[in-house]
Design goal:
The complex is a heterodimer. By secondary structure, chain A is mostly helical. Chain A has helices spanning 3-29, 34-56, 64-92. By secondary structure, chain B is mainly α. Classes of the chains: A mainly alpha, B mainly alpha.
């Protein structure tokens, strides 16, 4: 894909990202149930991050091995959060 | 080759050649080995009899703490990287490491950090006396007010910078600078060992950096991350041991690689099950991250997590079992040549098996309750970390000494060294298994049955320590009067033996190529490929300035100003020399690059940096998660504290800056310099706008009493958004650099990698903010 056609994709992604940000804010402002806010807000943040990584960071067009590195970091990040919180959560019971 | 330059101090202060840096690492790590070893001999003397007065309790604690810190972080691992620096480019047929100047920076940061840690001995209250694990709350200001604890902690942060830079360099070098034909399966074991080491480093060190940052903020600014109920010791344990356990494998993996190369060569046949060794190596490296809670069995955390980690801990013995059995089967029915390196390699295997088997006991939660904090554990981890590692590294030193010096050592003296070291080592550590009920980290004891074991250990310690005299004498004598080694004294197969001993600065006169299992040299029409040697004092000056800045900030304030000025001047000079392209290392024209075929050195380097940064934020967000879940009910709802509109505005500002950066990359590739310039200026402006909004938010929150020390939610908010803001600022400096280069017309259709690499970093900053916005403003 040539660079000039990428410009349209970049602009489209930006509109999507701003739209998702507004959606996140609206979810909170309309006082949805906390569990929906938790899942919704973190889910939308994840989707936005995915679009930034795939298109702006060019992960979609880069060597697949870079994605392996990213996935590994994501796995360890989730592992850290799970073990840190999992360890403490039951500790309180 | 002009040997006179090696007698010039200026040369050593400014060299960027990987072999010189390797020698600098070697000398420095041996110095720290001497310091750490001397401390050990001191406290072994203290323990030879009950109630000895060699060291008082405080001095004993300082000696034990600094022995652990120095040996693990400033001696053993850097000793492995001395060999790695010297040999990895040679083994893969490269001219140098990917980023020679950063390699020098890595060394000087390492040296400066080590000296900073050592200075703590001379501060009021002395060096840290809290154990190398820096357990909280002992490490907090309340219980350890001496500045040495902060200074050594900051030294550790500097060392992490060194490690990060080194990791980037080695990953990129091994990934995309291998000689044509040198596919992954054909890489020598030592280089594989270093690759696994740096990959573990990549994911392990940054969460520790997060822990040190939080501890530093606690100690300097008065927050309560590690002295509160909600964070406290458990938070530190998690952050420390997520690094601390993989660190064992960081120390061990290079030695495993060396043992593989040495056993293969002196058995005169290929490694048995080489493919399975590599698969096992990879599995063990991965598992090393998911076992760390076995260091926390006694803390009372979630039983399910403990049970899972008990199983993973036991399972890690399987891949290591495969590796050791493969080494042993390689020697089976082989025509073995018994030499000094071979003896050390076999000794390392023997000691590792003892260390490994005793480790399996520690994976049992029930047994852990009894042997935790005893000399059993001391014996176990020294068999694994000292026995296997030091004996493996000594095998490597003897093996490659002829390559590094061009001379042979005295074989008989080498064998005597092995024998004395082996006896000394086992006398030192084996008795500790038998005093499995004696508590460690205590300056004396009163049980008479423990005396003979302690005396044996002390005797063994001195024999082991003094055995190194054989090594030093042998190497010094060999250097001055040993017989010439020739290019390949061991009749080895790997590439480093095909060049001269010692190798020329450019390693090979021609491009090495591997075809059909045989190395040859691509002569490129008879002309050797060009090699540029650079000398620069900037890495040394930058490291020194940083050390002075830290020392000044923590201990002697007037030096802080001097350090900051020196730091800014050095950074300015570094950036200026880059803008003027005074230090350009061209991409390798022919190299084995799969699976990074479309990656350049700079781009892959920035990707690795981003992964490292991702792990830093993973550590910080892990801390946030742990504290928040412990504060359920007390944590203020995000919108009740933070202005969602301002947070949302800043999110849109950063997203827009990501768009402008993406556009900048596209314009750079299209060769549209004018639009590129505008896109970069827009990015800088948006970055500045983000920082202004952030500053406004902070001032408003402070005015409302939501300050850094007003509670954990506030402390976390300021630290996480502050670290993120620092990244935005760094990105803005990089943008200025790109704007200047664009202004000078340096970017076009063919040369735009700098813009693309910057984009990777900037978008990462954006991604981090997306989560911080959700975690602090919306939840």
């Amino acid at each position: 894909m040539n660079e000039s056609s990428m410009l349209k994709i970049y602009s489209g992604i930006w509109i999507l990202l701003v739209g998702l940000t507004i959606l996140e804010i609206l979810m909170v402002m309309f006082n949805m149930a906390p569990i929906f806010i938790l899942i919704g807000v973190l889910g939308i943040a994840g989707v936005k991050a995915l679009f930034v990584a795939l298109y702006y960071q060019h992960l979609k067009y880069d060597d697949i091995a870079i994605s392996w590195f990213y996935l590994m970091a994501l796995f360890f990040a989730l592992f850290i959060v799970m073990v840190f919180t999992g360890g403490s959560a039951v500790c309180q019971v | 080759m002009n040997n006179n330059k090696y007698y010039s101090i200026r040369y050593w202060l400014t060299t960027t050649n990987h072999k010189d840096i390797g020698i600098l690492y070697l000398v420095t790590s041996l110095y720290f080995l001497l310091v750490g070893g001397t401390l050990a001999l001191l406290f072994r003397l203290q323990l030879a009899y009950p109630d000895m007065n060699i060291l008082n309790p405080s001095a004993y604690n300082q000696a034990v703490t600094m022995h652990g810190l120095i040996m693990v972080l400033w001696a053993v691992s850097p000793l492995a990287f001395a060999l790695a620096n010297y040999l990895v480019p040679l083994q893969i047929g490269a001219r140098d490491l990917a980023f020679p100047r950063l390699n020098a920076l890595s060394y000087w940061l390492y040296l400066a950090s080590g000296l900073l840690a050592a200075i703590s001995f001379f501060l009021p209250g002395g060096a840290p006396d809290i154990g190398w694990t820096y357990y909280a709350p002992l490490s907090t200001l309340k219980y350890s007010p001496q500045p040495g604890v902060t200074l050594a902690g900051i030294a550790l942060a500097m060392l992490i910078m060194s490690v990060t830079v080194g990791t980037i360099n080695f990953v990129v070098t091994i990934a995309i600078m291998r000689a044509p034909g040198l596919t992954w399966s054909k890489i020598p074991m030592f280089t594989w060992g270093i690759l696994f080491t740096v990959l573990i480093m990549l994911f392990a060190f940054s969460p520790l950096a997060a822990g040190i940052l939080l501890l530093a903020v606690d100690r300097v600014f008065g927050t309560t991350f590690f002295s509160s109920v909600e964070g406290g010791p458990i938070l530190w344990d998690h952050l420390f041991w997520f690094f601390g356990h993989p660190e064992v494998y960081i120390v061990l993996a290079p030695a495993i690689g060396i043992i593989g190369d040495v056993i293969e060569n002196f058995s005169r046949k290929p490694l048995f099950g080489r493919k399975y060794i590599l698969i096992s190596f990879g599995i063990a490296s991965f598992i090393s991250f998911i076992v760390y809670v076995h260091h926390m069995f006694a803390t009372g955390i979630n039983p399910i997590v403990r049970e899972v980690m008990s199983i993973t801990t036991e399972s890690i013995s399987v891949p290591f079992g495969v590796i050791m059995l493969s080494f042993i089967f390689t020697m089976y029915k082989a025509r073995i040549r018994i030499t000094t390196p071979f003896l050390f390699a076999v000794g390392a295997i023997f000691l590792f098996i003892i260390g490994g088997i005793t480790g399996v006991f520690n994976s049992s939660i029930a047994l852990d309750r009894h042997i935790r904090g005893t000399y059993w554990v001391v014996a176990h981890f020294h068999y694994a970390m000292v026995g296997a590692t030091i004996f493996g590294l000594l095998a490597g030193l003897y093996y490659w000494y002829p390559k590094m010096t061009g001379k042979m050592f005295n074989e008989k003296l080498g064998r005597i060294h092995f024998l004395v070291a082996f006896i000394g080592f086992n006398l030192l550590y084996f008795p500790m298994f038998l005093i499995y009920d004696m508590p460690r980290r205590v300056y004396t004891y009163y049980v008479s049955e423990w005396i003979p074991y302690n005396q044996l250990a002390t005797l063994g310690g001195y024999i082991f320590g003094f055995s190194f005299i054989f090594l030093v004498y042998n190497f010094v004598k060999g250097y001055f009067s040993g017989p010439p080694a020739g290019n390949n004294p061991w009749n080895a197969w790997s590439l480093e033996w095909l060049t001269t001993s010692p190798p020329p600065p450019h390693n090979f006169d021609f491009q090495p190529v591997l075809t059909g299992g045989q190395f040859s040299f691509y002569t490129n029409g008879g002309h050797p490929e060009s090699h540029i040697e650079h000398q620069t004092p900037l890495p040394m000056a930058l490291s020194l300035s940083l050390a002075i800045t830290f020392f000044g900030f923590l201990v002697y304030q007037p030096l802080f100003i001097v350090g900051v000025i020196a730091l800014l001047v050095t950074l300015g000079k570094w950036i200026y020399s880059d803008v003027k392209d005074r230090f350009v290392i061209p991409e390798v024209s022919k190299a084995e690059k799969w699976p990074f075929d479309s990656s350049s050195k700079i781009k892959l380097g920035v990707w690795i940096l981003v992964i490292s940064e991702a792990m830093l934020f993973a550590g910080l967000i892990g801390a946030y998660s742990l504290i928040r879940i412990n504060m359920i009910g007390d944590w203020p709802y995000g919108p009740s504290i933070h202005d969602i509109r301002l947070g949302g505005l800043n999110t849109i500002i950063l997203l827009t800056s990501s768009l402008t950066v993406a556009l900048a990359v596209a314009y750079a590739k299209m060769g549209d310099t004018r639009r590129l310039w505008w896109a970069l200026v827009s990015t800088f402006t948006l970055g500045a706008l983000f920082m202004i909004v952030k500053a406004f938010e902070w001032s408003e929150l402070y005015a409302e009493g939501f300050t850094l020390t007003s509670g954990l939610p506030a402390s976390l908010y300021y630290v996480l958004t502050g670290v993120h803001g620092a990244h935005v600022l760094a990105g803005m400096v990089a943008t200025l650099y790109l704007i200047f280069k664009t202004f000078e017309g340096r970017y076009n259709e063919d040369n735009n990698i700098g813009v693309e690499a910057f984009g990777i970093y900037w978008h990462f900053i954006d991604i981090v903010w997306l989560f911080l916005f959700a975690l602090f403003y919306l939840l």
